[in-house]
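Hi everyone, sorry if this is the wrong subforum. Our group has a chain we'd like a structural model of before ordering constructs, and none of us has done structure prediction before. Sequence below.
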Amino acid sequence: MALLEVNDLRVSFRTPDGIVQAVRGLSFDVDTGKTLGIVGESGSGKSVSTQTIMGLVRGARVSGTALFEGQDLLTMGSRDLQRVRGAEVGMIFQDPLSSLHPYYKVGWQIGEMIRQHDKSVSKSEARKRAVDLLRLVGIPQPDRRVDDYPHQFSGGMRQRAMIAMAMALNPKLLIADEPTTALDVTVQAQVLQVMKTLQEEFGTAIIMITHDLGVIADIADEVIVMYAGAVMERAGRRAIFYENHHPYTEGLLQSLPGYGDDRERLLPIPGSPPSLINLPSGCPFHPRCPYVMDRCKTDVPELAPVGGDVTHLSACWLPHDMDARNARRKDVIGHAEPAPAEALAGAEAAGGEA
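Answer:
Right subforum, don't worry. Here is the predicted structure as tokens:
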């Protein structure tokens, strides 16, 4: 059994305009020490899914299961769920300035979180642990910065402080919801390295939610590509970048900036994501898909193995035999190779493992 097993998660919200189908049949699992990347455009259901699992979504209609070490988080009582959050599952959010209380010192906030879950820890012990954690995530002069307020930290340092808080009790699972979006590229790389170092040291499983395929290339073991609340493709990192099957995955990769002498203009995905209240019939991506067929407009494709590989799934009516898929790709876009994978190549050149 995996550390976390999510099966057929569905989340919807009632609004004056209709029912918002935010997450539609999401299933995945995460093993200890592994990283699952969830990628997609804004509004694809990435954040809602994990926030629902952790009981942070109010007023939603939820179905499915989310088994964490055999216990269903979706049916867990609020007191038990509060015990799991922080101690067993840590969370890092996109904007650390809004996640950290502006009126309290950073070290106090980390220490208070520790004492909330372990009443036997004294204030002095919690402060010492906070200093050690800030040192662990690379904050300079942690014994002094522990008494600073959030506004005295830079964006990258605030995000490191959030990682320190999330890792304070050595959780088994870390959910990172777009933790590098507001950071420049250099700081982003440093934050990702901190997360990988902590994962190696403590064996923590990570769910990385992002729209940045460069981050996925650097950190993920397995990748889920979401669109309109549903999974379009699921595979290992290398397969997503080098053997992608779904046209939406291909479109995301083609929209990446190139580099070097072969740089070409970006190829954006035409159109806009659909309304989650009035989803199109058939495949939700068909209004934007260059490969659209009549069947795509009427029938919803199910996730099915690509090329007989049960670890590579795609929800598309294109041939699941990769030779036939590449022939179709060549007919439509002029070449048979999957979309460019500069992000993964760059990660490998920097020393990342493929």
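For your construct planning: Residues 185-202 form the longest helix (18 residues). The longest strand covers residues 18-30.
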